[in-house]
Design a protein that fits this description.
The protein is built from 8 helices and 5 strands. The protein has about 230 residues and is of the alpha/beta class. The protein has a single domain (about 10-234), classed as Rossmann fold.
Length: about 230
């Protein structure tokens, strides 16, 4: 495996890739509505979070919204999911006003799948680099909202086959994420096993393109997350 002297996953960066939405417009929307929402829960992530639902309203949504309502209905939620984001993009957003002044009870972090992608604009991260990117995110969240409880999601399975190199990289990332959560006192939530068939393949009924979730996939996330929120709120 290549070694790199500079870990790009911890260097804040603005939009790197083109996607189905305007990255900068969504950033401005967050700045305008975040204090008005006064969120109890803040979701931090990439397109999987972005296209689930909530505010700011997305022009695109995956699923019907029932899973969203089953876990977040009646709660004030700010969705800081941005399609194609990597850890470095989240760091820039946290450094540029998206989180400052908020006091959520919960922060749910689901980031890292795009760090496994090699594009013309950014190289893939190693598992260790992505872990360090998440560490930097947690540090910023705690600086702004020291009393918030943080749920760190394991990166969801990606690609159909368990033998796919990306799947193996994600597996290693999640091992490191679990260790990081234990070190920092985070709640680590891994729903990956519930998403897979008995042979380890990722069904398209769960992730329609073997990355983004269907309503059925979102319901698995919602059920697991609701259990954590309810259990730890008592």
């Amino acid at each position: 495996m290549k070694t790199h002297t500079v870990n790009t996953a911890v260097i804040p960066a603005t939009k790197l890739e083109e996607d189905s939405y305007d990255w900068w417009e969504r950033h401005e929307q967050v700045l305008q509505i975040r204090k008005e929402i006064d969120p109890e829960i803040v979701l931090i992530g990439d397109s999987i979070t972005h296209f689930w639902g909530g505010l700011p309203v997305s022009t695109s949504r995956h699923g019907t919204g029932q899973a969203w309502e089953s876990v977040f209905g009646g709660r004030r939620v700010l969705n800081l999911g941005f399609g194609w984001d990597r850890t470095q993009n989240v760091l820039w957003r946290l450094d540029n006003g998206q989180f400052g002044g908020l006091s959520p009870k919960w922060v749910v972090i689901n980031i890292g799948t795009n760090n496994t992608s090699e594009t013309d604009n950014a190289r893939a991260s190693t598992a260790e680099e992505a872990r360090d990117g998440v560490r930097a995110i947690v540090e910023r969240v705690r600086k702004h909202a020291p009393s918030a409880r943080i749920v760190l999601m394991a990166v969801f399975p990606r690609e159909e086959s368990p033998e796919d190199p990306r799947r193996k990289l994600i597996g290693r990332m999640n091992e490191l994420y679990a260790e990081l959560a234990a070190e920092l006192g985070l709640t680590f939530l891994d729903i990956g096993p519930s998403m897979l068939a008995e042979d380890g393949n990722l069904p398209r009924e769960i992730a329609f393109d073997t990355c983004h979730l269907t309503e059925q996939g979102y319901q698995l996330w919602a059920d697991a997350l609701r259990e954590v929120l309810n259990r730890e709120s008592k």
